[in-house]
Amino acid sequence: MSASQHGHNFDIRVERLDGCTVLTLVGEMDFHGTPAFYAQIDGLWTPGGAPRLILELAELIFCDSAGLGALVYVFNQVTSAGGRLILVAVPDHLRRRLRISGLDNHFEFGESVEQAVLALGAA
């Protein structure tokens, strides 16, 4: 799924690995791209399941306050369903925003998708 408006590009690639859902976010997650993200998240799992979600962020080149809000939204959705969320390959610009906002204390981080899949498999 991709969203593009006013020159802003945001793509979401979805993959399933060993019972985990991996979303690779590419481009700019801002006011224009977050509706596609919300739609993707809301359609990922059925009620009653404990989602195991990995967000792979190495190709995310920009994330504004709307993007941070979307990350908080997915965290709340996953944890309220009894699941786990791991952010992997977080770019420095996003790590800095998460740290400044205090959100880094709420997220679990991993170095790679493979590491996150192993961690979620042990859950």
UniProtKB/TrEMBL annotation:
Residue ranges of every copy of the STAS domain listed in the record: 10-120
Q: Which InterPro entries match?
A: Anti-sigma_ant, STAS_dom, STAS_dom_sf
Classification via Pfam families: STAS (PF01740)
- SUPFAM superfamilies xref list: SpoIIaa-like
- CDD domains per the UniProt record, alphabetical: STAS_anti-anti-sigma_factors
The entry assigns this protein to a family as follows: Belongs to the anti-sigma-factor antagonist family.
**UniProt protein name:** Anti-sigma factor antagonist
Q: Which organism is it from?
A: Sphaerisporangium corydalis
The major lineage groups are: Bacteria, Bacillati, Actinomycetota, Actinomycetes, Streptosporangiales
